[in-house]
């Protein structure tokens, strides 16, 4: 028989999973309409936020394998959105970098994308959102 503590934990995990699934579905649907996959858009978003970055760091941030990032970046290169460049500090390190076409693509998508995501949290006040962030931070430490 599960204790009240474990039942509450299981209910919390179920709610977190359902919430994450809902967010992923909204994200995937929107970027699919823009002729990208969710991982492709994630790479473009990371590169637009950070500038040129090692592919390893992208895979770590997205929590996927290096092989997965290689495939995603290959496809983005074919579309002309990303290019690979060698690091000036260590030529063994390969950086992903947005092309002008890639920057234009992500900048054309990002504002509406952010609005769609913000609408998912519109049921919470700003204070509640900050509180939820603080609570989730406690789980991810």
Number of helices: 6
Order of helices and strands: HHEHHEEHH
**Morphology:** globular
The strand order across the widest sheet is 1-3-2
Q: What is the end-to-end distance?
A: 29 Å
Global Rg: 18 Å
Stretches where pLDDT is under 50 for at least 5 consecutive residues are none
Q: Would you tell me the overall average pLDDT?
A: 93
- Amount of beta strand: 5-15%
Structural class: mainly alpha
CATH architecture: Orthogonal Bundle
* Text of the CATH class: Mainly Alpha
Compute the number of structural domains.
Answer: 1
User: The biggest beta sheet, please?
Assistant: 3 strands, antiparallel
**CATH topology-level fold name:** Arc Repressor Mutant, subunit A
Helix percent reads over 70%
> How many distinct beta strands?
3
CATH superfamily: Winged helix-like DNA-binding domain superfamily/Winged helix DNA-binding domain
Fold and architecture overview:
Pfam families: MarR. InterPro entries: HTH_MarR-typ, MarR/SlyA-like, WH-like_DNA-bd_sf, WH_DNA-bd_sf. One of its GO terms (biological process) is response to stress. Residues 9-141 form the HTH marR-type domain. This is MarR family transcriptional regulator. This protein is 70% helix and 9% strand. With 141 residues, the chain is mainly alpha-helical. The protein has one domain: Winged helix-like DNA-binding domain superfamily/Winged helix DNA-binding domain (Arc Repressor Mutant, subunit A, Orthogonal Bundle), CATH 1.10.10. A three-stranded antiparallel β-sheet has the order 1-3-2. A hairpin with a 7-residue loop joins strand 2 (82-86) and strand 3. Helix 1 (4-33) packs across helix 5 (100-120), helix 2 crosses helix 5 and helix 3 (55-62) packs across helix 4 (66-78).
């Amino acid at each position: 028989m599960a204790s009240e503590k474990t039942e509450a934990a299981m209910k919390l995990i179920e709610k977190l999973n359902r919430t994450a699934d809902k967010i992923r579905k909204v994200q995937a649907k929107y970027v699919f309409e823009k002729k990208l996959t969710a991982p492709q858009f994630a790479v473009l978003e990371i590169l637009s936020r950070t500038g040129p970055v090692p592919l390893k760091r992208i895979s770590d941030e997205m929590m996927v394998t290096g092989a997965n990032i290689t495939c995603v970046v290959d496809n983005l290169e074919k579309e002309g959105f990303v290019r690979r460049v060698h690091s000036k500090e260590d030529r063994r390190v390969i950086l992903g970098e947005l092309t002008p076409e890639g920057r234009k693509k992500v900048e054309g998508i990002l504002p509406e994308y952010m609005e769609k995501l913000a609408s998912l949290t519109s049921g919470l006040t700003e204070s509640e959102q900050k509180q939820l962030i603080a609570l989730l931070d406690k789980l991810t430490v």
